[in-house]
Amino acid sequence: MFDRDLWREIFQSINMNRTRTLLSGFTVTFAILLFAILFGITNGLTNTFDDAFKDDATNSIFIMSGRTTKANKGLQAGRQIQFKNEDYDYIKEEFGEKVQYITARIYKNVNASFQNEKNSYSVRAVHPDHQYLENTEVTIGRYINQLDLNEKTKVVVIGRLVENDLFLKTTALGKYINLNGIQYKVVGVFEDDGGDNEERLIYMPITTAQQIYGNNDYIDQINLTYNPKMGYDQAIAFSSLLTRKLKDRFSVAESDQRAVRVRNLANEAKGINQMTSGLGMIVLVIGFGTLIAGVVGISNIMIFIVKERTKEIGIRKALGASPKSIVSIILMESVLITLIAGFVGLVLGMGILELIGPSLEKFFIKDPKVSLNLVIGATITLIVAGGIAGYLPAKKASRIKPIVALRDD
Amino acid sequence: MLKINKLHKSYPIGDSSLHVLKGIDLSVDSGEMVAIMGSSGSGKSTLLNIIGMLDEADEGEYILDNVPIKNLTEKKAAIYRNKFLGFIFQSFNLINYKNALDNVALPLYYQGLKRKERIEKGLFHLEKVGLKAWAEHLPNELSGGQKQRVAIARALAADPKLLLADEPTGALDTKTSYEIMAFLQQLNDEGKTILIVTHEEDIADMCKRIVRLVDGVIMEDKFVEQVRASQYV
User: Cβ distance B232 to B69 under 8 Å?
Assistant: First the structure.
């Protein structure tokens, strides 16, 4: 198969029929080009969705409260539901293993200052687990820890942009920042992939916030991640159970949509997952369909070539060519045309994606690329496709009888 | 060298069949130069095709160089053709996109020889037919006589036991025909066994033996005084 003389023969034959070879390869080139672009765009869409979830862990569940909209168990509608520390403890105890990380949250807006620099920021008072729920990356210092919670210490972890805004070019670590007139020590600076707003945040221990802002045990929101070993369906079942138990705990009607709200990212992740795999299937079907059309085209051309070369094949047989050598010459030619045409399509597709990629971002297509796996897969597919395309013509060629081929002078 | 006994061959034509060869007995010794003559439809080409293993007989025996030729698979036929036989055709049958040298070297390729050896042998045979200077030329750059000489060089390249020529001068003018015949006679003088199918009397007279076929049977088989072609060239 890797005989140099065989290749010489094949190139001689391709060279002889340059235009026709070009035309027959075109369909395959087009098929692979189309496939590469569609595949790249699907990848781009997936990238966009992945980005949307980058800020939060994809197995997150958010629990929020509001006013009841329906009367239930003798209680009137319009009642405000307020989470407290005991609700946080209840979830932790009730669901144990099913919960990976859990944190409560209190939101506050503060005016912050350091020396002459002032600005207003959002504060989130949280538990230590919050770091993992939000994919917060502490670059200097540390995050809030259990000791801070126990001692109700006045410490904060500030975002990279807060440090930029207030501390200008100096480092914030160890210095004291003034929030609404109270001094807090900066124990850490963090970065977050979720965008600028996520880096203009200040984190403090939840117990500190509860003591300073109202001296109560109120909680605004509870975030948790479910055990990642659970699948989408298990996760969705888990969050419905959680919803039911919480509604029961606060005597909220089962059908009340506002009083206790549980948002499970698994619901959305599942939908998106289904959509991208659906898109992938469509791309595969289109790609394969076009490729089949290309293979039929090449097969057609090869049959034509065999017909045209009938006499030559007859001569070769009269000179002692074995059927095998005839088959391999036609088969290899077909594989070679398919492979080269396919690679041209692939390279063109990658080039086009590279060119138009940046301008597609507004259509939610980010960084559309073709993966190495696809290139390897495409190569194997092309070799097989070329083999299929060449098989019938090659068989036909090997059956040519020299006496018939040489007769019509 | 070659022995044929009671050879029969018929071709189906529609529902009936055409009996082309009706029991041919022929034996040719080494070093002979035989003309097979007959009008068209006499079966002479069919006989040559069977001898050339391009076709198989329905009945009868065919022994070539002590090897019985029967029930050949395609692969085996290819090997035998390559080893035993050299073909010369009326229309030359050169491969038009290969130059003279590559054409001559093609049987050697199917023998599995290395490229260097093929070029060496190919050039040797081209020189023998006086066309070494034309080695790099494509067939359409050669005259009819030159093409046939390239074809003869190709037939000789694999050093076959038997040369089979099917109307080798049919497409050539008289002068060129005699040149080709002179060359074939020279090869015969050197010991090659040659079978020539022709319907031209003057060509047949240049062989040493004439076999006449009429309607699928041998009507006449005689040894003749060979006319040397070189005297006309």
Answer: no
> Which of A319, A328, A399 to mutate: most B Cβ within 10 Å?
A319
- Chain A residue numbers with beta carbons less than 8 Å from the beta carbon of B82 are 319-320
Identify the pLDDT of residue A405: 77
Best mutation target among B54, B104, B108, B166 (most A Cβ atoms within 10 Å) is: B54
- CATH no., domain B32-59+73-232: 3.40.50.300
d(CA B43, CA B67): 24
Q: Which residues of B touch A320 (CB under 8 A)?
A: 78-79, 81-83, 107, 110-111, 158
Looking at the complex, report in whole angstroms how far the Cα of residue B233 sits from the nearest Cα belonging to chain A: 28
pLDDT at residue A60, rounded to an integer:
85
H or E segment and range at residue A125 = strand A117-126
ipTM, 2 decimals? 0.89
Q: Dig out the tokens for B171 from the structure.
A: 């497409």
A84, A85, A88, A89 alpha-carbon torsion, rounded to 10°: -140
In whole angstroms, give the CA distance from residue B88 to residue B156: 10
pLDDT in tens, B5-14: 999 999 888 8
Q: Where are the alpha helices (DSSP H) in B53-96?
A: 74-84
Q: Do A323 and B78 make contact, defined as CB atoms within 8 angstroms?
A: yes
Residue B66 contacts by C-beta under 8 Å, 6 or more apart in sequence?
none
| Contact between B110 and A402 using a beta-carbon 8 Å cutoff | no
For the segment A191-203, what is each residue's pLDDT rounded down to a tens digit? 887 778 888 899 9
DSSP secondary structure letter of residue B228: P
Where exactly are the structural domains of chain A? 4-52+271-407, 82-249
| Distance, C-alpha A276 to centroid of its chain | 9
Element (H, E) at A26: helix A18-52
Distance (Å, whole) CA A142 – CA A131? 10
Task: Work out how many CB contacts closer than 8 A connect A with B.
Answer: 62
Cα A310 from chain centroid (whole Å): 53
Which residues of chain A have a CB within 8 Å of the CB of B94? Answer: 315
pLDDT at A41: 84
Is A403 in the B-facing interface, judged by CB distances under 8 Å? yes
The alpha carbon of B154 is separated from its chain's Cα centroid by a whole number of angstroms, namely 11
Can you point out the beta strands (E) in B65-149?
A: 67-68, 85-88
